Hints:
- The protein is mainly β.
- Helix content is 8%, strand content 35%.
- The chain is built from 2 helices and 12 strands.
- Strands 2-12-11-5-6 form a 5-stranded mixed beta sheet, with no helix packed on it.
Amino acid sequence: MPKKNPSRHTSSNEFDLSLSYADIDESDRSKESLDDKFRDASGSMINWTEAGFVFLPNRIKYLAIVPSIEIAKKEFEPNEIVTFNIVFRNRLPFPIKIRTESKLPWSWSINNVEKASHYVDFDPSSEQGTFILERSERRSYTRKWSQKFRVSKSKWEDAMNGEYELSAWINVPDPQSKGLQANTSFVIG
C-alpha cells in the first residue's frame, strides 16, 4: 500500500504516489536520475521527431519544408560546369519527418531527365524511406552538371545551346503540388 507523504498536503482519502530517491531501494539506484531513463538522445523527455511524424498531418509537414535551388549565375558557356546547391529548410521549431517513396529521399533533374541520365544504373528499392530535418535545420547539397546527358552505360551526349530547367524535389508522390519541389532555369550558350 502506498505510504502517505507527510510533506505534501493531501486529503484523508488521497495518497501521494510520486517517487522520491528515498523510496528506491539502494540496490536499484544508478548514477543517472530516474528521468534520464526516459529521455531521448538530445535529453528531451519526448522524442519530438517521432511525435511530429505521428501527430502532425502530412499537409503541415509538407508546408514546413521549403526546397530551393541556388545557382551562381543564369548563363553558362558551352562545356562549362554548372554548379548548384539544393537546399531543404525546416521552418518550424521542431523536427519534421516525412515518408518517402524509396530509400532515396530526394532527387534532381535537368529538363525532366533525372540526374541528367537516360540510363539508370541504380534501381532504388521499392521500400519506403524517410526524410528528416531537425528543428529549423537548413540542409544543403552541392551538385555539378557537366552539360552532358548520359544515354548509356558508357556514352554521354553534349547538351545543346538553349534554356534548361533544373528541378529538385523530395521523393513523395506529386511533390510539385505539395510544395516539395523547387525549379529554376538557366541558359547555355
